[in-house]
Design goal:
single chain; mainly alpha; ABC transporter involved in vitamin B12 uptake, BtuC; transmembrane; ABC transporter permease; transmembrane helix; ABC_BtuC-like; membrane
Length: 287
């Protein structure tokens, strides 16, 4: 493993990208889960796939544009999808959750159309769906680094506003938190999803955003503790998943998600046993 990291550029790109993604995905995921928008990651990941497949289609009809990284089309589509979700949530004020399946359906439909037009499924598409150690290029890594900087700057500058928005959206309107911060937040979510797709895979990226939070919620009480622990869990799952995927020669996305699911199951089982033990001790004392 160490030899591969030293000798192959794509291995270094994948691991550096994984470490960065393992940090920003749970970080932004904490705000998403608290706002009860967990499914937005699924919707935007499918829109991102539509953008990437559109980029591949463009290259097939205009080979001169092959220098353009399809990831940029994915980012553009994800940002547009994120803004549409926010607009739909405003339009359907009493049924805000309907915005997510609408955009998700559109993303899946666009993906199916452009993948077909771009000569169907190939190894690159499969890698994007489920993640791939060899898929990350130096261009992808550079894009991911830029996105990480943007995400960190945004959270540091607007942490207080995001905290209020996440826990009480109505109160945020009363105290006059600008609407554009909410729009920027949804764009940041789109950027994080676009950054994560190469390593984790488009179909599994939402798990990396939500599962570390679900695990950390069972172990912490404060919001900052939740963020810190979820980032630690995210980093562990990504690094361990990449290592296991390398030795098993399989897609890393599935391994990362299975590790997170196992951690959640272990935590739930531990807490269940703990509750039963405490109840048993109380019953014994009563006797």
């Amino acid at each position: 493993m160490i030899e591969a990291l030293l000798n192959f550029d794509f291995m270094r790109y994948s691991f550096i990208s994984g470490i960065l993604i393992g940090f920003i995905a749970p970080l932004i995921g904490a705000f998403i889960v608290v706002r009860r928008l967990s499914l937005i990651a699924d919707a935007l990941s499918h829109v991102t796939l539509g953008g990437i497949s559109f980029g591949m289609f463009v290259v097939t009809i205009a080979p001169a544009l092959a220098f353009i990284n399809p990831m940029w089309f994915g980012i553009l589509f994800a940002i547009v999808g994120a803004l549409l979700i926010e607009n739909l949530r405003t339009s359907y004020s009493n049924y805000q959750e309907i915005a997510i399946p609408i955009i998700m359906s559109a993303g899946i439909a666009l993906s199916a159309i452009f993948i077909s037009l771009a000569d169907g499924f190939n190894q690159e598409i499969v890698g994007l769906l489920f993640g791939s150690i060899s898929a990350v290029t130096v261009s992808d890594l550079s894009t991911i680094i830029v996105i990480v900087v943007i995400v960190l700057a945004f959270i540091l500058l607007f942490y207080k506003e995001l905290f209020i928005l996440s826990f009480d959206e109505e109160y945020s309107k009363v105290i006059g938190i600008p609407k554009w911060i909410q729009f920027l937040f949804i764009i940041i979510v789109a950027l994080v999803i676009s950054a994560s797709m190469r390593v984790v895979g488009i179909l599994l990226v939402s798990a990396l955003i939500t599962l570390p939070i679900a695990i950390a919620m069972r172990m912490t009480k404060g919001f900052k503790q939740l963020i810190t622990l979820s980032v630690v869990i995210g980093e562990f799952s990504v690094i361990a998943g990449l290592v296991l995927a390398f030795y098993m020669n399989i897609s890393p996305g599935g391994v990362i998600v299975v590790l997170l699911v196992l951690l959640l199951a272990i935590m739930m089982l531990y807490q269940k046993i703990k509750v039963r033990t405490v109840k048993g001790a109380i019953n014994n004392e009563d006797r």
